[in-house]
From TrEMBL:
UniProt-recorded name of the protein: Extracellular solute-binding protein
Pfam short name (any one): SBP_bac_1
Species this protein is from: Paenibacillus faecis
Signal peptide from the UniProt entry: 1-23
Gene3D superfamilies linked: Periplasmic binding protein-like II (3.40.190.10)
InterPro entries (UniProt xref): Bact_solute-bd_prot1, SBP
Regions crossing the membrane: none
Alphabetical UniProt keywords: Signal
The organism's place on the tree of life at top rank: Bacteria
């Protein structure tokens, strides 16, 4: 009887507190469900917030249905999705994080996890995620959502950063693209192949062999993709020594300059952004493009359909293109290591510790978004490989028009994807990012613009690394 009286007293006190707090309207992750009320089934009502960008072409169009389906699955829970563009996603999230009231879930790249762990704003779900949830995911992509001993969300996909070729132009240049898809190619083979793709009229280049987006921060994508195939899959080796002081790093920098000096890439490469890169591919101004994601095949198909239907929304001046997935070349006899990106639904917390109930609800929502029908629909739209058993099962009833050679090529590249490195301490990772932002990106832009030599960039990176990690903290080979 005493226990019952104590419970009633606690509930009355909680109700009075709730009335007092109503005007303040705390976010669900700040109070850990402080504004919860009892649902008809006896379970506490709760709202889970999610900040989500346009992950695929149709993703944001499905938000209302996602919210409805989640509520049908959990009648006491409400999933409230806030849309964001890719351009303002980081700014929106950082504003909310800095205010101490982030969304419960945000869709970000796994490489951003260390940043928010360091700020103390991520929610470790290691003890909350159920064994059934964990077992649903392929092990490799799930590792990317970890930092140290913590698990900070669920992966949405594991995508390969590949190259993409125009089938007609590849064959006209005598390139056996099917063999390349299966067996890869060396830098030397790649260099000669893209020379054959160049078409000139007098002194004017009408078509380049290779174009990559390198304007602004996209330059780091280009470098990061290449160096993984040169024996540097991460910024630190297994002994946690900074890797980009290796002699192989210098050789890749030399290669970057060579491809421009050969005339296979535009001299103005440093001004080519992602939009211009894709436009150049669709309008026949390049044989091979990068960074190529699986979804580009879908984008090319859709543009082809618009051209066939004489639809004015097709890219101006574009031509029909059959998109062929190609691997990145390997350097210096190193084994191929595909650059992969794992993005996902990362779990955040506010200034206050969330309750166990709210934590469990956030995990339910993150898993709902990353698995089953939602994952299958999103990944099919992206032409991305499914990474959950439930997603594969749901996808069986969905039709996707993909080139089977491209599917096989992506599977081959995924078989030697760069491994996750949750062992890299947060502080080391943060220092590496600082070197990348302060030295590597600006120096690479200068290299692309032919303002400095590969050797000058290499020495600048090495000097900064020694100053940051010490002579014993870097690779000396």
């Amino acid at each position: 009887m005493k226990r019952k009286t104590h419970v009633l007293t606690s509930l009355l006190a909680f109700s009075m507190l709730l009335t007092t707090l109503t005007a303040c309207g705390p976010k669900s992750n700040e109070g850990g469900g402080a504004n919860a009320a009892k649902a008809g089934n006896g379970e506490a009502k709760d709202t889970i917030t999610a900040l989500l960008p346009p992950v695929s072409g149709e993703f944001q169009n499905n938000f209302a249905q996602m919210e409805k389906d989640f509520n049908a699955l959990y009648p006491n829970l409400t999933l409230k999705i806030e849309p964001a563009s890719w351009e303002d996603m980081t700014q929106k999230l950082d504003t909310q994080v800095n205010a101490g009231s982030p969304p419960d879930i945000a869709f970000i790249g796994s490489d951003g996890i260390s940043k928010y762990v360091q700020q103390g704003m991520l929610m470790d779900i290691t003890e909350t995620a159920t064994p059934e949830m964990i077992a649903d995911f392929d092990p490799a992509p799930l590792e990317y959502m970890k930092k140290g001993e913590g698990l900070y969300g669920f992966p949405a996909y594991m995508e390969v950063h590949a190259l993409g070729g125009n089938k007609e132009y590849l064959e006209a240049a005598g390139i056996d693209w099917k063999n390349v898809q299966k067996n890869g190619w060396t830098y030397e083979e790649f260099r000669e192949a893209i020379k054959k793709g160049v078409v000139k009229e007098g002194n004017t280049t009408k078509r380049y062999g290779f174009v990559f987006a390198t304007a602004g921060v996209t330059a780091k994508d280009y470098l990061n993709i290449l160096i993984k195939n040169a024996g540097m899959p991460a910024a630190f080796d297994k002994d946690l020594k900074y890797a980009y002081t290796s002699k192989n790093f210098l050789e890749v920098l030399k290669a970057i300059r060579q491809l421009i000096d050969d005339g296979s890439m535009p001299k103005e490469l440093s001004s080519v952004d992602a939009g211009k890169r894709w436009n150049m591919f669709l309008t026949g101004q390049t044989m091979i493009t990068g960074k190529g994601l699986a979804t580009f095949e879908n984008s090319a198909k859709k543009n082809n359909e618009k051209l066939k239907a004489n639809d004015g929304s097709a890219v101006q001046g574009s031509i029909p293109v059959e998109y062929i997935v190609l691997p990145v070349p390997t350097f210096l006899g190193e084994e191929p290591i595909s650059s992969t990106v794992v993005d996902g639904y990362v779990t955040f917390r506010g200034k206050k510790e969330p309750t166990a109930e709210h934590k469990a609800n956030v995990v339910k929502a993150a898993y709902f978004l990353a698995s089953g029908k939602v994952a299958a629909t999103t990944n099919n739209d992206l032409f991305a490989a499914h990474i959950t058993k439930s997603g594969r099962e749901a996808a069986k009833s969905m039709t996707v028009d993909r080139n089977p050679d491209n599917v096989a090529a992506v599977e081959t590249m995924l078989s030697h994807a760069n491994p996750a490195r949750p062992d890299i301490p947060v502080d080391l990772g943060a220092k590496a990012i600082k070197i990348e932002d302060a030295v590597i990106i600006p120096k690479l832009q200068a290299l692309l613009a032919n303002e400095i030599t590969p050797e000058e960039m290499y020495e600048a990176v090495k000097a900064e690394a020694i100053g940051t990690f010490g002579q014993d903290g870097i690779v000396n080979d």
